Amino acid sequence: MQGIAHKLWYDLQETAEIRRAIVRETKLDFPVVHGAEAERAYQKQIITPRANLKFAFPKLKYYEALQHLSYLRGTLDLDNVVV
Question: In a 3-state reduction of DSSP, which class is residue 54?
Fold first, then answer.
């Protein structure tokens, strides 16, 4: 059992080493094939916020202030409408 696990681990390490080598080679080839400007698109960019906008929660009206809209009750079935 230990021999099988060791063989699987060795094969996995070998595959990972091959993949790392391919990535390193591709990283070196990319600027040559696509140009130095194309590589800039894959570099990390720092985005700075342009504004510091803060919005407070809107003031809710009292229930008594909405009594005149009572005729609208039941016009929508809230079980079938996305709210």
Answer: coil
- Residue 61 inside a domain? The answer is no
Mean pLDDT for back-to-back runs of 10 residues, the chain (83 residues): 90 96 89 77 78 87 88 85 77
Handedness of CA 36, 37, 39, 43 (dihedral sign): positive
Using CA atoms, how far apart are residues 13 and 4, in angstroms rounded to an integer? Answer: 14
Whether 60 is in a domain gets the answer no
Q: Do the domain assignments include residue 81?
A: no
Q: Are 60 and 68 contacting, i.e. CB atoms less than 8 angstroms apart?
A: no
Query: Tell me, what amino acid is at 47?
Result: I
Provide the number of structural domains found in the chain.
1
Q: How far is CA 47 from CA 19, 38, 44, 50, 73, in A?
A: 32, 19, 10, 9, 47
* Domain span including residue 33: 1-45
